Amino acid sequence: MGCVSDNRWESFPEMLSTVKETEDGEEATLEPVQFPFEKVFPVYAISLSKPDTDSIVNSGHDPIWDAVREEAKLEAEKEPILSSFLYASILAHDCLEQTLAFVLANRLQNPALLATQLLDIFSHVMMHDRDIQRSIRLDVQAFMDRDPACLSYSSALLYLKGYHSLQSYRVAHTLWKQGRKLLALALQSRITAKIGDGILLDHGTGVVIGETAVVGNRVSLMHSVTLGGTGKETGDRHPKVGDLALLGACVTVLGNINIGEGAMVAAGSLVLKHVPPHSMAAGTPAQVIGSIEEQDPSLTMNHGRTLMVQMNTILALVSFVTGCYDELADATKEFFKHVAVGLRDGRSKIAIGR
């Protein structure tokens, strides 16, 4: 899972060497030249500093990194105009950690915090944290498995902001735990929450995760999900989402409540109380409307299941109301019939009395 040998990294400048003939024209030698990165890659700053690979887990084989490199090579052949971009972003690096650090640094750079500075920060943290090394691979696999719009590992790595926000959170969370709080806040504003591995953060737009929230492993969160508090109270005040849960688009969960393991919350729901494990909740406020047949709703991503249950619930309610109406109509009919008979008998008695 670690980077390849140091020799390959050190040989990178040699790839930029030029052939220079001696004055007599008989012998040609390779002489390194200063490559104009600023001109060729004006947007994508790059650092040629030698990475520290001592702390990387060296498994000898990283299938995800191998796949990323192969995809980049194929894309560079199909789209030559992107060859420089793909080379600077992926092919110039030795491992997934270095590539991800490069991508995040260029995404988050600003005039006061340069990409080269961010590159050193991201690289140092990821190269020395085995938990992050595991998480970045489980997360990218989650995007490949669950997001039909994710075309490849490399596309998730380069373009999907949900994946980028997850990994910048992981680096910032580590910096926060190290006491480097201002630097952590410069990368992401909500960093004390605990987020597990294998997360799908679909789109990554409008997602709010409170500072005391907990998100379990292999959870899927759609866009505009809010895991928030209920006011200005302090302490442990945010939701806890169990493993394998699925929260649909625009779901709002407020307060220190639990979304059980393997639970599913329908899109647009407002959750104000606990949702039991392997159950289905929907509505505003949300109510439990059924149970989950499959054990892993976050992996199957079957949002239509909640719609079917909601429709069945509505149809059952309509049927119940219709039945009540029919019974009421029959009772009303019998009542007015009884009243009519009574009035008729009363009139008859009056007539006889006269």
TrEMBL record:
The keyword Repressor does not apply. The keyword Repeat does not apply. InterPro entries: Hexapep_transf_CS (IPR018357), LbH_SAT (IPR045304), Ser_AcTrfase_N (IPR010493), Ser_AcTrfase_N_sf (IPR042122), Trimer_LpxA-like_sf (IPR011004). Keywords: Acyltransferase, Amino-acid biosynthesis, Transferase. It comes from the Eukaryota. PROSITE patterns: HEXAPEP_TRANSFERASES. Pfam families: SATase_N (PF06426). Residues 64-168 form the Serine acetyltransferase N-terminal domain. This is Serine acetyltransferase N-terminal domain-containing protein. It comes from Hibiscus sabdariffa.
